[in-house]
Amino acid sequence: MNFRPLILGHRGMGTGEGENSLLSLIRAVQVGADGVELDVQLSKDGVLVVNHDSSLKRTLGVDVEIKDTTFRSLRKMKLVRPDGITTLERVYLELPEESFINVEIKDPLAADLVVPLVKSFNAIDRTLFSSFWHECLRKVKEKDEKAKIGLLIGEDARGKNPVEYFEELLAYHPYSINLPVQLFDEIGFELGMSLIRFVRAKGVKVALWTLNDPALLIKIRGEVDIIITDNLRGIMAALGGKGERR
């Protein structure tokens, strides 16, 4: 069988212009991704808004903090549109029902709200809840023990004993550990692959972000379960189509 990893479009079609917009997320699935990775913030009135930054300044050129603004106000500013910001609810309404969605929780306060929303779409099985705020993922599991959680690994891992650190992470009973592709530059390819194999040997999936190099993908194919990419077209071409996932 032609098994391949799950391919997710990073913020839709990638970081930059249009990222996390409804158009970008829909386009990623149209191009052939199995789903998308997106980020959620919480508005002042408790709406799950899809945006990476806490502010809209970088993406839309408006110096507005999402947590300090009601969703109604965002609408009045004409920022809620297909090429602007959208809501997590709208994403589940618009994307195909089979799409896999990695919801990265940027605001820990959103942890109590994401699971009920996803459950309202009967989409727990096709959703991965991830965050650098590992403790907020405990709240996700409290809401539904079947929820898939992915522990995002960043700079906090530097200087730690890899085996001891990952043993601590496994106590969360994660579905996946989401590693940055830069780990190969920091600790070397062979050590990086040893770390990936160690995690997978524990029955935990490995997601790699943000992998944009098709040559690297081919090199590690069969060793990683989820690929999150800004270079969706290049990665899909390297895989030669959809194939069959494991």
Terminal-residue CA separation: 9 Å
The count of domains is 1
Secondary structure: number of strands: 12
How many separate helices? 11
The level-1 CATH class: Alpha Beta
Quick one: overall form?
Answer: globular
Mean pLDDT reading: 94
CATH topology: TIM Barrel
Give the amount of beta strand, in percent.
15-25%
- The radius of gyration over CA amounts to 18 Å
- Taking pLDDT < 50 over at least 5 consecutive residues as the criterion, the unreliable ranges are none
- Identify the strand order in the major beta sheet: 2-3-6-7-8-9-10-11
Q: CATH superfamily membership, which one?
A: Phosphatidylinositol (PI) phosphodiesterase
Helix percent band: 25-40%
Provide the CATH architecture: Alpha-Beta Barrel
For the largest beta-sheet, the strand count, sense and barrel status come to: 8 strands, parallel, barrel
State the secondary-structure class.
Answer: alpha/beta
Give an account of the 3D structure:
The chain is α/β, with parallel strands linked by helices. The chain has a single domain, classed as Phosphatidylinositol (PI) phosphodiesterase (TIM Barrel), CATH 3.20.20. It is 36% helix and 21% strand. The protein has eleven helices and twelve strands. The chain has helices spanning 22-31, 57-60, 71-76, 88-94, 111-120, 134-143, 162-170, 183-187, 189-201, 214-220, 232-239; strands at residues 3-4, 6-10, 35-42, 48-50, 86-87, 100-105, 127-131, 148-152, 176-180, 205-209, 226-229, 244-245. The strands form two sheets. Strands 2-3-6-7-8-9-10-11 form an eight-stranded parallel beta barrel, surrounded by five helices. Strands 1-12 form a two-stranded parallel sheet. Strand 6, helix 5 (111-120) and strand 7 form a beta-alpha-beta unit. Helix 5 (111-120) packs across helix 6 (134-143) and helix 10 (214-220) crosses helix 11 (232-239). The radius of gyration is 18 Å and the shape is globular.
